[in-house]
Amino acid sequence: MKLEIHNISKSYGSTQALKNFCAELTPGIYALLGPNGSGKTTLMNILTGNLRADAGNITFTDEDGRCENVAAMGKEFRGMLGFMPQYPGMYPSFTLEEFLQYVATLKDVGKDLPKKQRDALIKAQIDGVLQAVELSDVARHKIGSLSGGMKQRLALAQAVLGDPKILILDEPTAGLDPKQRIAVRNYISRIAMGKIVIIATHVVSDVEFIAKEIIMLRKGEIIQKAPGHELLQQLEGKVWTLCVPEGEIAAVQSAFAVTNISAAEHQPGMAILRVLCDNRPAPDACEQSPTLEDYYLYVFGQQA
Amino acid sequence: MKLIVFELKKLLGMRFLRVCLLVLLSICFALSFFAAESSQKEAVPHRELEAFFDLYFENRAEMDAYYNELVRGEMHDPMQEQRPQQAEQKYAPDGYTDLQMFTTLYAAIEQAQGHPERMDGVVESAEKNLAEFRAMGIPESSYNYKLQQTVIRTYTELKSTVRIGIEPTRGWEIYFNHSAQNALLFALILLVSISAASCDRTVGMLPVIACTKRGKQGVSGAKIVTLMPVTVCLVLLFSLTSFAAVGLACGYSSASNAIQSVPGFALCPYALSIRQYLVLSLLLRSAAFCLFAAMSALICALIRNRAYAFGAGLLLLGLQYALNSISYINPDSPWKSLNLIALTDASPLFARLRTCNLLGMPCHYVPLAFCLCVILTAPVLMLFWLVFVRRQGGSAKKQLPCKLPVKLRELASKRHLPRFVPKSLFGIELYKMLIVSGMVFAILLLGAGKIAYAQYEYRNPGTVSDRVYYKHMTELEGPLTEQKLLYIQEKRNEIDQTLAKSDQMQANFIAGKITQAQYAAYLEQLESAKSEDAHWAIVEQKRDRLLSLSEQGWLVYDTGWLKLHNSRADWLLLLAIALFASHAFSMEYRRSGPSDGFASILRATPKGRSKTYFAKLAAVLCVSVGLCILFSLIDLLSVATQYALPAANAPLASLPGFESIAATCTIGGYYALMLTCRCAFALLTALGIFSLSCLLQRSLYAMAIGIVIALPISLTHTAIYAAIPVLLLSAVAAIAAYRKFST
To answer: Among partner residues A49, A51, A105, which is closest to B2 by beta-carbon distance?
Structure first.
């Protein structure tokens, strides 16, 4: 199974949101990283058919090797999609069960089965996803009464309902507490077997250990596309920690790219700075193993 | 099937729709009930009337003789003010007279037994037209010729097939007046259609739906299949509510009687019973409302912004009202008979034979209307389906075609208007509520609606009697002087003399004492005197009324002033104030949680509580008063242009019905007082709804509850009595709102 994106471009007026985006996606998790306005959501909307690209096309090759343009596939392609948008919308008066029933109907889950079996399948799937996102207890509650985090998890649940082959998740962990984030990350990792999963996120740690490939976007263009470990290799020997007096923090920040500042333990008035620098910035600087967050900030030139 | 169920769930799950439905149903019930009740105020109670009818047919001769006696006793010299002594009533219950009973009885008999004559009258008129056409050489194959033949055929058949039972018709005439009910239905169906078409986009589910297998195709199909039956159910619901209200207020006469027994339907060209007409009209109205629902859904799918879609829907309605109100050269014009207002009213199509020219043949409007509704609804729904499915996501702003040069696209996308944001709190709040929220467009639309409605409400039918009345009153305008009294008497003498000479002149002409030319000249004078007789009697009534007053009054052309001073409740003003005031606080709050929306940031600033509250309150009150003055001016200008508003400095006692108010007040002064009261009520209403907006944080609830509370003070005749409780409620709500927001 393969999803190929060929030279997709999209502009809004004079703003180029995507420029000649190309990618070949096979089963696994792909992370789309980039600052706001880099084109992640635009790409997701084009993949799901919510936006029409100005140029380029997308083809899908199935397990039998049959390759077809997704625009021509239409319903058939949409039957393989599971989409969680950036700002998920749901009907406040529906209960969770009703909402997932509705989504199952939209996705034609169990279409070829007799009615009883279809209903049983749908019920089993709904129970399964609700349990996976830890919302079983509130299945009969109205969506309007849920907290932000619960709604986010429900949005994920509706995306994975029907066991889609292609999962497109835009900021799946936004608004979740650390425990929930880890749970969602693990869940995605578990269900990603045999699926193409595309995750757009700002939270680098969500994808650092699960993504097969990281695609970094800036102003609509791909600036990096490689597995995480390959990207991190580029930063080997470039990440350091420094212990400086608090009064010198500003000076260090102006001289180097600082990715983290924390107070030094047992040393009042001192701070530990994590900096990016090609050479040792100070004699007492300690080399550190780079993380994807370091790489992100290294690429996009931001300071923590 | 499941998708349809879910679409229904989406609609029923919208609380504001449920609230609107309840509120509008209540208004429908109240309007129908009060209309029925007020029409029955002076009518004899139906039980007594029915017993009287039965008694009459048992002793017809005796009753007729008694009636003749009554009539002779009631005759009096119109120049004298003395009424005859009230005789003891033999059959009428307390508060009513036997003469009233007989008037109703004979009217019913005339309605029933006069049917063949009426049919003959129509047939005769058609035959005269045919004779004229033959004389003019109009061919028999022409449409007009065939139309007259159709009229003759139809009404000849009706003469023999329709039998009207003699009974006091009750309730049906009021029930079949659907204008108030239809206005409410139009508003609700517009809301329902827009909600159905836009709910997925509004909640943010559309991107998810779009990428599912059934996708937008399945969902839009389900919406269509849901919207039509929902519309029909709403029509049924409102019709039943109105039916129940009228039934409770005054009951109904037999539904098996011919529809021709109902006033206004005497010339109905179909042999239908009232029951059959009820079903047919309901079907026609449902079809028309379904067409409207389809058009509203299409508008929403095209425009995407709900507020603009609502405005566009109102414009569509305004256009229909305009088509319905315009006077046409051809009274059977298709624009007049086939606009949505006429179709949803149904009665105009059944009142008399109406046809249009379809390929040279007269085609009845009723079946044509049915076919048209069905034929138009289908493609509109198809178009809705196409637009809903094909429309891409993204910003609701128009995306310019890529073929335009880049520079042009850049130019078009730039905002050229400078943005001016006021610096004072009051100014900023006014700016937020009017401009940022887009409320200014809604108010402009309502203003346009008000102008259209005022033109319709105050239209001058231009009757001859009113024109003559205007002429006389303009000549005599001013205080009642001796000179004017003398003039009036002289004119009366002149008329009486001319009328009295009639027999003598005829005899003189027959005897040859006067020439034909002289007799013809006299006959002309006689015709003029006969017409002047009735008109001058009105002048004399005015004179007599003024003479009986203790305060000084003037002779003045009062038609326009009476229209203005007795004008009905201004629903549009109430709606405009409710719409504006309900947004005062709701725009600061979002539904998701207590700390969502701008309110939490606002209340964390030094000027964000008490000062902001008063700034909002001042903005709401100023705009409400401004709206009140504007809407009142629209009324004033409409009446002034359609009629005339002379002698504003005349004493108020010059107007009938205003004698009890202080003599020092002038007509113009009273209008100013009325305007002041209206402004006070507007302030009261605005205060109440403003406070509800703060307490409830949701504009729709604040609006709905506010309108219901403010209804009593909107109804002119209850305004004064209801003002105090509403004032108290508003004051309590305002204090509670202040405490909630500012502390």
So the answer is: A105
What is the rounded CA–CA span in Å between residue A179 and residue A181?
5
Count CA atoms closer than 13 A to A243's CA, side-chain side: 10
Residue A92 to residue B13, Cβ atoms within 8 A: yes
Give the closest of B213, B392, B591 to A50, CB-based.
Answer: B392
Q: What are phi and psi of A95, to 5 degrees?
A: -85, 170
- Across the interface, whether the CB atoms of B399 and A12 are under 8 A apart is answered yes
Task: Judge whether B177 and B364 are in contact, CB under 8 Å.
Answer: no
Are B189 and B24 in contact by the 8 Å Cβ rule? The answer is: no
Nearest CA distance, B405 vs chain A (angstrom) = 11
Chain A stretch 166-195, residues whose beta carbon is closer than 8 A to a beta carbon of chain B: 168
Give percent helix, percent strand, percent coil of chain B, each to the nearest 5: 70, 0, 25
Which of B215, B219, B410 is opposite residue A13, by nearest beta carbon?
Answer: B410
Q: Chain A contact for B13, CB < 8 A?
A: yes
Contact B210 A48 (CB under 8 A): yes
Q: What is the pLDDT along chain A (304 residues), one digit of tens a residue?
A: 899 999 999 988 888 889 999 999 999 999 999 888 888 889 988 888 888 889 999 999 988 888 888 888 888 888 888 988 888 778 888 889 988 888 888 888 888 889 889 889 999 999 999 999 989 999 999 888 998 889 989 999 999 999 999 999 988 888 888 888 888 888 888 888 889 999 998 788 888 888 899 999 988 889 889 888 888 888 888 899 989 898 888 888 888 888 889 888 888 888 999 988 888 888 888 888 888 888 888 888 754 4
DSSP string, A211-272: -SEEEEEETTEEEEEE-HHHHHHTTTT-EEEEEEEGGGHHHHHHHSEEEEEEEPTT-TTEEE
Q: Which of B6, B411, B495 is nearest to B223 (CA)?
A: B6
Question: With contact defined as beta carbons under 8 Å apart, do B151 and B123 qualify?
Answer: yes
pLDDT tens-digit profile of B44-96?
777 888 888 888 888 888 888 888 777 766 544 434 444 444 456 777 777 77
Tell me the residue type at A280: R
Mutate to test the interface with A, among B195, B208, B226 (most CBs of A within 10 A): B208
Residue B17 touches chain A, beta carbons under 8 Å: no
Residue of B nearest to A89 (CA): B204
Tell me the longest C-alpha to C-alpha distance in chain B.
Answer: 105
Cβ under 8 Å to A: B residues 143-202: 199-200, 202
Which of B172, B219, B182, B602 lies closest to B388, judged by CA?
B219
Torsions phi, psi of A25, nearest 5?
A: -110, 125
A302 touches chain B (CB under 8 A): no
How far apart (Å, rounded) are the C-alpha atoms in residues A106 and A109? 8
Cβ atoms of residues B708 and B575 within 8 Å: no
ipTM of the complex: 0.73
Q: What beta strand segments (E) does A87-212 contain?
A: 166-170, 196-201
**Residue B296 to chain A, least CA–CA distance (Å):** 22
> Helix A96-106 crosses helix A115-132 at what angle (to 10 degrees)?
120
**B227 falls in which pLDDT band (50, 70, 90)?**
very high
Work out the minimum CA distance from B589 to partner chain A, whole angstroms: 15
Which of A83, A94, A101 lies at the smallest CB-CB distance from B208? A83
Q: How many whole angstroms from its chain centre is CA A279?
A: 33
Nearest CA distance, B10 vs chain A (angstrom) = 7
Chain A residue numbers touching B14 (CB-CB < 8 A)? 93
pLDDT digits (tens, 9 = 90+) for B170-225: 889 889 987 778 888 888 899 899 989 988 888 888 888 988 888 888 999 999 99
**Residue B429: is its pLDDT beyond 70?**
yes
CA distance A164 to chain B (A): 10
Of the candidates B346, B229, B342, the one whose C-alpha atom is nearest the C-alpha of residue B277 is B346
